[in-house]
Amino acid sequence: MTERNSREIRIGNVRIGGSNPIAVQSMTATKTQDIDATIRQVELLEEAGADVIRIAVDNPKDVAALGVVRQARPNANLVVDLQENYRLAEKVAPFVQKLRYNPGHLYHLEREKPVREKVRYLVEIARQHGCAMRIGVNAGSVDPEKLDKVSKDDSITPMVESALEHSVMLDDLGFDQYCVSLKDSDPNKVIDANVLFAERRPDIPLHLGVTEAGMPPDGVIKTRVAFEQLITRGIGDTIRVSLTLPFERKGEEIAVGRQILDDIHNGRFRSVPRFEHKGLNIISCPSCSRVENEAFIDLAQNVKEITRYAKEHDITIAVMGCRVNGPGETDDADLGMWCAPSFVNLKRGTQSLGHFTYDEILGRLRLELDKLIGEKRKVLV
């Protein structure tokens, strides 16, 4: 194994980077405003051994709920996911140890304001409250200007360039207590993006994860492939296993992460250099506080069950739980769904096929899947 050489940063009572052990984290799966359920989720993750716990905040009511959660769990190392409302940073910073923002999302609020000015604001808030920061880049929500400069087939370059650009912004502001994440639902792209970034900036701690890895066991396998290939190269200072699980089972993400790290440490490897997926590939996001209807979890499981007959076909189906990442992160799937409170949006690639109730969606999905299989058979003939 190659030795890690990133700098050290502090997240509450946890230090990552340098020679520190790789930290394991997860995210609450409840709606933040459901205070009792969110506190219970934090407790479950702490009991499972989570070093850091992330909570999403998108409005003032979420901020108020976060304050109550902090009072109930005073020793938890909390990270806030600012989603699309970066201005909430000054409200939540007193309650957390780290602020996470997505460069792509910074464009959605106050569009007339330069991104550098928004980043400066976030850094000032983080510095004032002693918070670390994470530049969180996801394949489905990248800086639009970066996407316009490359071919549609290249999703890695925009991610890496966005992460590098924002790293320089923080460096220029004299702020070094930050880490970076570059995530995709394809473990090969996660590997490639993080290798490219680490070659350019080996000093910056990296948070690893395969976003929308899906349900066990497939989601565990995809994640394991990425972690084994990266950590053995000295890349990765903190990890998250993102699995679609019922709320009471979210602690399994921590257990799986610990098991993978233990296997790597003891030389027990189960992957090959490249992840080769043949047949049906179901992508589903981890249940989190952004999910607008808990029926999403059952939907993901039902999609897996009703599509078993298509297991031999090279088709990707994506099931996303919210409107934040759902629209963009289903674009690359053959068939994609993203869930709203009372209906599910269905897509074929980037084309919208309309929205359907939770009772209707499975029948329509199967209809579209059969069409797709028929078209592929004709091509082969």
What does this 3D model show about the protein?
This protein has 381 residues and is α/β, with parallel strands linked by helices. It folds into two domains: 9-265, Dihydropteroate synthase-like (TIM Barrel, Alpha-Beta Barrel); 281-380, 2-Layer Sandwich (Sulfite Reductase Hemoprotein, domain 1). 38% of the residues lie in helices and 18% in strands. The chain is built from twelve helices and 15 strands. The chain has an eight-stranded parallel β-barrel, surrounded by six helices. A five-stranded mixed beta sheet has the order 11-12-13-14-15. Strand 11, helix 10 (295-306) and strand 12 (316-320) form a beta-alpha-beta unit. The relative contact order is 0.11. The mean pLDDT is 91.
Defining traits:
381 residues; TIM Barrel; single chain; alpha/beta; 2 domains; Sulfite Reductase Hemoprotein, domain 1; five-stranded mixed beta sheet; globular; eight-stranded parallel beta barrel; 38% helix
Strand order of the largest sheet: 3-4-5-6-7-8-9-10
Write out the CATH superfamily name of the largest domain.
Dihydropteroate synthase-like
- CATH architectural type of the largest domain: Alpha-Beta Barrel
- Annotation field: number of helices: 12
Let me know the largest β-sheet: 8 strands, parallel, barrel
The first-level CATH class of the largest domain is given as Alpha Beta
Tertiary shape: globular
Which stretches are poorly predicted, pLDDT < 50 over at least 5 residues? Answer: none
Order of helices and strands: EEEHEHEHEHEHHEHEHEHEHEHEEEH
Number of domains: 2
